[in-house]
């Protein structure tokens, strides 16, 4: 079935028809979401990709999830007959020079010294050259194979352009009144021994995130049912501290209300969230677009499986923009923070390099 899904995604890509191919963490089966004009049947599950901040330039992407039983001969024939559409390349966010990054991080540290801010996320963009033979489907397959614990995807749409990612951060898994979420904060290089020592800075940064999650969900009546962590997890290139949470929600709380209190998370904004967002807006100086936004599935009943769009890249006509960031606290060392973003960028860079080797 995966081979068929990949084949359909390749056809959609060749015709510039909006789609997203994706896979949930610790699962093998690939899923596909397509534009509504290709799938006219009523579908109970939709795929959404929302930007970090909605605007006229960055609109929410909504696609219909293609169920296995809907992949019929009629569907494939309809797809084959559809004409090629205009390409959906968008201009990329500008690169962040090392000089500008260090200017920005010192501005962040100045804000943190005032005491109203405990943590703020500084992100940056760097470019990789896009080869003439760049193969987005192959790149997705590399992410799928090498990042089993991440939400991996390739999304193409006129609103967003082309994005690929392998996010380690669950925003929420909601089933009725049950809610799962995670605190993910604290980063270091991947260790071959799989033994990790976490400094006080990382432990405190992680504790802040967990306290925030418990506080905001308590406001809407969410009670902690279970808590596991903190423990170390590994991604393709780095290790993080993670704590898992199970909450029980009141029956009258809907998905939109839960998303509103959880996003933006401290892992992509900071703490307190409002102060951190102001710091980002004043000093970061670029549009994050869909980086740090929300991505995943939503069912008609209000159940959902959503992730924060981290470890991602935007593919342009000539270059590829990789988005990386890290949490800045009063104890941050600017050089260490820069190196952390370099480490985080390796997941996407490795995927791009694999395509170059292929050709």
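Sequence proposed for the structure above (359 residues):
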């Amino acid at each position: 079935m995966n081979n068929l899904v990949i084949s359909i995604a390749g056809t959609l890509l060749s015709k510039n028809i909006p789609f997203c191919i994706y896979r949930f963490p610790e699962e093998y089966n690939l899923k596909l979401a397509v534009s509504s004009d290709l799938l006219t049947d009523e579908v109970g599950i939709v795929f959404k990709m929302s930007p970090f901040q909605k605007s006229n330039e960055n609109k929410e992407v909504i696609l219909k999830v293609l169920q296995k039983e809907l992949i019929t001969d009629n569907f494939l024939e309809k797809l084959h007959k559809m004409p090629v559409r205009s390409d959906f390349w968008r201009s990329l966010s500008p690169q962040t020079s090392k000089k500008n990054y260090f200017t920005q991080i010192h501005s962040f540290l100045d804000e943190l010294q005032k005491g109203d801010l405990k943590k703020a996320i500084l992100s940056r963009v760097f470019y990789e050259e896009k080869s003439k033979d760049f193969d987005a489907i192959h790149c997705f397959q590399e992410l799928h194979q090498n990042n089993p614990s991440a939400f991996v995807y390739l999304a193409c749409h006129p609103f967003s352009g082309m994005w690929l990612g392998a996010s380690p951060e669950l925003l929420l898994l909601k089933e009725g009144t049950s809610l799962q979420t995670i605190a993910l904060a604290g980063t270091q290089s991947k260790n071959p021994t799989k033994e990790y020592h976490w400094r006080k800075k990382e432990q405190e940064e992680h504790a802040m995130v967990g306290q925030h999650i418990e506080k905001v969900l308590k406001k809407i009546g969410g009670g902690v049912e279970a808590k596991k962590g903190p423990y170390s997890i590994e991604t393709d290139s780095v290790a993080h501290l993670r704590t898992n949470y199970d909450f029980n929600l009141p029956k009258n709380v809907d998905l939109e209300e839960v998303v509103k209190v959880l996003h933006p998370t401290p892992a992509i904004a900071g703490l307190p969230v409002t102060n951190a967002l102001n710091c980002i807006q004043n000093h970061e100086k670029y549009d994050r677009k869909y980086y740090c936004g929300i991505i995943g599935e939503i069912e008609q009943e209000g159940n959902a499986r959503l992730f924060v769009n981290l470890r991602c890249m935007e593919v342009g006509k000539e270059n590829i923009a990789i988005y990386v960031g890290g949490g800045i606290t009063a104890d941050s060392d600017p050089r260490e923070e820069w190196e952390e973003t370099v480490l985080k960028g390796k997941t996407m860079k490795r995927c791009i390099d694999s395509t170059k080797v292929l050709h």
